[in-house]
Amino acid sequence: MDDAAFSDFYARPTGDGKFSVGGVALDRPFRIVRLGHFGFNLNNIEEGIRFYTDLLGFVVTDIRDASDRLSKEQLAQVKGPPIGVFTRYGSDHHAMVLFNRSMREVADGKARWPDGITTNQITWQCGSLGQISDAIKWFAAKQVPTVRSGRDMPGSNWHTYIADPDGNVSELYYGIEQIGWDGYSKPWEMHDRAFRQAPPMPQISEYQEVTDALARGVDFTKGFRDTKRPPATHDVDGILLARPFKIVRMGPVRLFMKDVAAAKRFYTEMLGFTPTETVVYKGHTCEFLRANTEHHAVALYPIALREELGLSSHTTNFSIGLQVANYRQLRNAREFLIEKGCKVRELPHELFPGIDYHFVVHDPDGHAVQFYHYMEQIGWDGKPRPASARPRVEPGVWPETVPGQPDSYMGEPFLGPWE
Ligand SMILES: [Fe+2]
Fold first, then answer.
1. By CB count within 10 A, which of 114, 187, 271, 312 is most buried?
2. Does 27 reside within a domain?
3. How far is the CA of 214 from the centre of ligand 1 (A)?
4. pLDDT digits (tens, 9 = 90+) for 348-392
5. Ligand 1 centroid, distance to 327 Cα (angstroms)
């Protein structure tokens, strides 16, 4: 590709194969900085919604019912309600997205969701709409197929979707809708600025969209507001919540892959993740990649490990990580979930470099959800902490207090109040 191919990019080619992204020379015209949201396609959608909302505390921001988009014949094939549910833990419109798997198979075709791919989307935040626009063109120039591009509603994020070698879909996005103090999502009347393909550039700001909606008399209280919250009875570091913990960050995403080396090439070369560490566990090579300063945002494990760990054979998703606000909350979350009848267990700690205490629970479909409180942070030299200098964890032992680390409470902070 010569530089002329990039003449309409926001990132300017620098002549040495790099791109000036906002004046900083990078290997590709975009930079992923954070896991924004994540989704599962669920067989047990109703029980799944209860698990992620009532039990774990995600707040529903919108429910999308596909009844009006599917034919009568199609609807008859869908098991359970034909819905997708958008939920949040912070101000991003959605963090955990839950779709009825059978509805997605009917709507998108079975080929779109191969056996084992129950991960609906792994969604990465980039720094500008220009970067998303450039990413779409860059993938096209490299003849990397994208699943689709545009701007979805609800959520309002501008995006492009690209699949990894096994069919897990990563989404790159900019500008997801923020839910404010009143807890209302945008009313559906404001969904008129959805795009089904890459949008022409530039676009008006969201503030202007809101100004335009006000001018045409849109009633903002017509947006969705979750009113079915369980009673808040736990004093969680000063705030009454319905459970003794608060999720403050999502990720890492752990995936079982058919070919870990090929997957590593995809996530590093196509999406720009940085390798942090390789772990060989009982002969299995596992790769840990980061997007920002966290030790890892994506971890890749060989599929042969799934059975050895006793994880559900219905999915190639190893786990989705949920970080709680502190270690005490992690202990309390463990006890709370055991009390609620969840099967809680620790998996071998060698598989999670950069995390100290953790436990795993399973959603009603069998997906593993990993709870933890601390993630090692990587600094300017890009080196993880030597294993000998890491916090020591004795499996199965949960001390009351753990030693502070140089990077305790560091990394991506949670903004705003706890619900
Ligand atoms: Fe998304």
1. 271
2. no
3. 26
4. 999 999 999 999 999 999 999 999 999 999 999 999 999 899 999
5. 30
